[in-house]
Amino acid sequence: MKRSFIREILEATNSNTISFAGGLPNHDLFPIEELSQCASNVLAQKTTWQYSTSNGLPSLRRAIANLYNQEGFETSEENILITTGSQQALYILARYYQNSPIIIEAPSYLGATNSFRLNNLTMHPLPLRDDGIDAEQFKQASHKTKLSYLIPDYQNPSTTTYSETKRQAIAKIVEQEGVVLIEDSPYSDIYFEKKYRPISSYIPNRSFHLGSFSKSLAPSLRIGWIRANTKLLDELLPIKESIDLHSCGLSQAILSEYLKGTLRFQTHLQKLQNHYRNKMNTFCDLLDTHLPQFQYTRPQGGMFVYGHLEGVDIYALLEKCMRANVVFVPADEFFIDDRQSGAIRLNFTNTTPQEMAKGIEVIKRALES
Amino acid sequence: MKRSFIREILEATNSNTISFAGGLPNHDLFPIEELSQCASNVLAQKTTWQYSTSNGLPSLRRAIANLYNQEGFETSEENILITTGSQQALYILARYYQNSPIIIEAPSYLGATNSFRLNNLTMHPLPLRDDGIDAEQFKQASHKTKLSYLIPDYQNPSTTTYSETKRQAIAKIVEQEGVVLIEDSPYSDIYFEKKYRPISSYIPNRSFHLGSFSKSLAPSLRIGWIRANTKLLDELLPIKESIDLHSCGLSQAILSEYLKGTLRFQTHLQKLQNHYRNKMNTFCDLLDTHLPQFQYTRPQGGMFVYGHLEGVDIYALLEKCMRANVVFVPADEFFIDDRQSGAIRLNFTNTTPQEMAKGIEVIKRALES
User: Fewer CB in a 10 Å sphere around the end CB: N or C, chain A?
Assistant: First the structure.
């Protein structure tokens, strides 16, 4: 299995690099003071440091269930399995469905496709349109392939967002054809316009809905979750237990304490959304002005801009940019086949407006040279 | 795969249960004040909350390498892979060696054998003698089976400790027969007499040495590690990355800060050893007085006492005891075949002398009834 190219780029960068690669949230937005306050409340308790149960801290599972309930997606503590980041949720599901065929999007998330490959799932990619995969193509594929993996909210890498209509159409096909849906939503809270209803909410017994605090609060906590019906979760628990007994107890206790104030989390999310929306608009304004040949759609959420540079050798471009200390990710990395997509993914969350301008200038010059 | 019977017992217990089951360290011994102080130092730093590298925080890897170097086992940062508890180390190795045959001890650690089973390793158990497996039997088995899993320090469950001579004999066979050794040492710091030299130190290029802070500091941190040569570790890294990207960043930062004071850790370990040694002796004195038919050897370290009750139906005994709110683990659970070992494992770390006396009295009466 190839290692994540993105992580290799990340590890090659230094403090002078302007990085449009990676998916690092902006560390200035971590609510460090509040989380540290929560930490000092819970670290004094002995139970915070002891072994706990494999499915996760009951108080945290309740808090996450509450987040779903607030949005009208009926969920109880028993529907939540805590995982060590969303990545572990993907691994557990890949392990559970090992050797199965699976419908994925093209492009798709590298952390997922790597886990699928490691567990010998045969991937059947469906091309992404403006509002998600084509419903008819999904229906055709679902006649043979009863497992699917979709990222309907501000997809990494393509930023594609499924429309309401498309979500309902997908849900209907899942129900009719007896498909199981793995719905990966790490960016669902980082929206710039509105929050979409999860596809899983239409098909709660045929879906795994994956969430994470890595983008909304802080990645190093390594806390994500799977929302599913209890029967499905029960089958995953032995795998979770075998992988790491349980996820970090400190992180779970801190998050559980933090989420006691639901208003606190909502206020933080609004701040995050405003900040990232502004950043995205600044970045896109700069792209429009200085790189008009870059064809893209402004994202509705998430941390990336994705687009095409027609007729450009993307890897040659990256090489030139890297020599000038600017990095991004060629979108070919996100396809499971060999292809020249002519597309690139640009992260905008972890650069200042000055760095954005400088980085885009470097890309522009590299294109001209 | 069957779920851990121990965890099922644990989940069935309530606040009135006297539990000799499980392997919970005593929560009164967690150095909460010092760890919390370390936490408040590192939580103020933004990098503590950000994504980090899959192999682990460099400062923590250096600190762990130092612990090895202090004992004369030459180790550098590059020899350490941080894992989400020892359990994850076991899973990663089981995944890496999937479908292989493996030599194990009988009895063995359930968390390991479950991971081996999940990854389709064929287990070849060798019976434990007083000082470990028989060297000649190991040699015979190693002609066919080139992978082995041993727990030489105060084994869970049997408390068996390999003698110096036996360690050298095993190392020699590993070298001569081209075997790879997975040496699991979660209890190596919880010794009552002396610390033994790891078998891995004789065969650093043919071994994975597994360590953990779960018993020595606090389990909820979920931080363990694999010590191996860099070539072996490089092969494990893609699996680690696929499983959870990296282990909890908060835990790693807190531990890294804590281990800056090596004297602090050593002082804590001495306190731990003294406390557990006293507890063990108290427990064994009570056993000798009130349960003379229980045949066992006082352990040299770890958290358990293991012994036999000749001619007793252990599961019937457990059922009687559970009705009186006392639990322990029948040793049959730790063998991969169906057998009536007539043995039980008793944990002594998490009960007071009063509870010990009461619990032993319950077992005594259940035996007589």
Answer: C
